[in-house]
Write a structure and sequence with these properties.
Low-confidence stretches: 68-92, 314-318
Strand content: 25-35%
CATH class of one domain: Mainly Beta
Helix content: 25-40%
Strand order of the largest sheet: 1-2-3-6-5-4
CATH topology of one domain: Pdz3 Domain
Number of strands: 21
Structural class: alpha+beta
Mean pLDDT: 81
Number of helices: 11
Distance between the termini: 125 Å
CATH superfamily of one domain: PDZ domain
């Protein structure tokens, strides 16, 4: 096979390869240059700042010369210009008269520009009352005792129960004050809110004296939309206020019908409610009611004044409320505060069975009556009656504590618990004046689950 001369002369160079190797970096030299460059930059910056600060005031003064402020010049007063005190007073009176006249003219002009008729005034009042009642109704719920599941579909369930008031909130549950008759003999308790949502309630305690109880409802069981539209009632101070003739609103079931509203005046606010071991006050109104009335009485600011109660009409109360038996009455809220706290906390309250009153100082001095808690009567089969205490006695001591009034007796009794045995000193009238008698009283419980 013939060969080409060029192929014969061609040399094999495939074994030859060239690799370009990068020059190694001198890290020390690079770091030194970086430090030098940064140092020069700092020095340059410092020199520039110093030069700017030094030359800026000079350049500013030359380019933007600051204008000199004008001098303040006050006019000089001469002796003839000075006002006497009489002239000053006259001028002040004149200014005041002019301002008063101007304000009076403005008020008259404003009144003349509006024409308010009797119907307009009635509408304004009705609107205000309605708004207050609607806001207060956020603390009103319907409490119903459920005996069995069939009650959910019966008419008796719809018509039973009572209006309760949300009186406390501890962050995990709300607490509702309601007449115990609403849940009597109930296996379950249902609480209905304003939006018709229903949740289950739990009995805390029932007070045997006032026949009121506190129901708790866990906040977690209440729908979120419902929680946003309920609130705890704001209590007014009924202890020192003179509420007679004050306009009030009754909310809840004042007419015996749920979500009814009444408006009227307080006719009396200082009548004592003669119940055992207590000094509650009854508020009476001119609003017609019924034996089924429940709910609350509020003032025009929406503050809670009392819990509607139509059940306490003993002989003494009837005498003080003659002609008002069919009108709405309520237990004043201030005196109920301690009771609410105890019932909500499931604190058992002591029961002695004393119905009494304070004796005014003038009468006490005139009849030479010893200071103390005057006993008007005792509850049948009560610890007080079992210990021999009777009407007309005056309690002067509980153990070693002096008692100078019935209010003090109520306060001291609250320091004890059911089953405590206390020593009671009474003064009893005899032919030779008052004689001291000591007796032992074993307290019982005024509450139950």
């Amino acid at each position: 096979m013939p060969f080409n001369d060029q192929d014969e002369n061609k040399k094999d160079t495939s074994f030859i390869s060239e690799k370009i190797k990068q020059r190694p970096i001198n890290r020390k030299k690079l770091l030194r240059r970086t430090i030098i460059t940064a140092s020069m930059a700092v020095v340059f910056g410092l020199v520039s700042c110093f030069t700017f600060l030094l030359l800026q005031p000079l350049l500013s003064d030359k380019l933007y010369p600051e204008s000199q402020p004008e001098k303040i010049s006050l006019p000089e007063e001469s002796a003839s210009d000075e006002l006497t005190p009489e002239e000053m007073l006259a001028d002040d009176n004149a200014i005041a008269d002019n301002e008063a006249q101007t304000e009076e003219n403005q008020i008259e002009a404003a009144i003349d520009s509006y024409s308010i008729s009797g119907s307009d005034y009635a509408k304004i009042m009705a609107s205000s009352i309605r708004d207050t009642a609607d806001e207060a109704s956020k603390c009103i719920v319907r409490v119903t005792g459920v005996a069995n599941n069939t009650d959910w579909f019966s008419d008796s369930f719809e018509s039973s129960g009572a209006s309760g008031v949300i009186v406390a909130d501890n962050g995990t549950a709300i607490f509702i004050l309601v007449p115990s008759s609403a849940v009597k003999n109930a296996k379950n308790i249902r609480v209905t809110f304003g939006d018709e949502s229903m949740v289950e309630g739990e009995m805390c305690l029932t007070d045997n004296i006032t026949k009121l109880c506190v129901i708790s409802v866990k906040l977690a069981s209440i729908p979120e939309t419902t929680r946003e539209n309920i609130k705890t009632a704001t209590r007014a101070n009924t202890n020192f206020s003179n509420l007679t003739a004050v306009p009030v609103i009754a909310v809840g079931s004042p007419t015996g019908i749920h979500r009814s509203v009444s408006f009227g005046l307080i006719t009396s606010d200082k009548s004592p409610l003669y119940l055992a071991d207590s000094n509650y006050k009854i508020i009476t109104t001119d609003m017609p009611g019924s034996s089924d009335s429940t709910g609350a009485i509020i003032n025009l600011n929406g503050e809670l004044l009392g819990i509607i109660d139509m059940t306490h009409t003993n002989d003494e109360t009837r005498k003080n409320r003659k002609g008002l038996d069919n009108h709405i009455s309520a237990i004043a809220i201030t005196e109920l505060t301690n009771l609410i706290e105890d019932l909500a906390s499931k604190e058992q309250r002591p029961f002695m069975g004393i119905i009494g009153k304070n004796v005014p100082t003038a009468i006490r001095d005139e009849l030479d009556i010893p200071p103390g808690a005057f006993v008007t009567s005792t509850e049948e089969a009560s610890p007080a009656r079992n210990a021999g205490i009777q009407s007309g006695d005056i309690i002067t001591k509980i153990n070693n504590d002096d008692i100078i009034s019935f209010d003090m007796f109520v306060k001291k009794l609250a320091d004890y618990s059911p089953d405590d045995v206390i020593s009671v000193t009474v003064m009893r009238q005899s032919t030779k004046g008052y004689a001291e008698i000591k007796t032992q009283v074993t307290l019982e419980s005024a509450t139950h689950d």
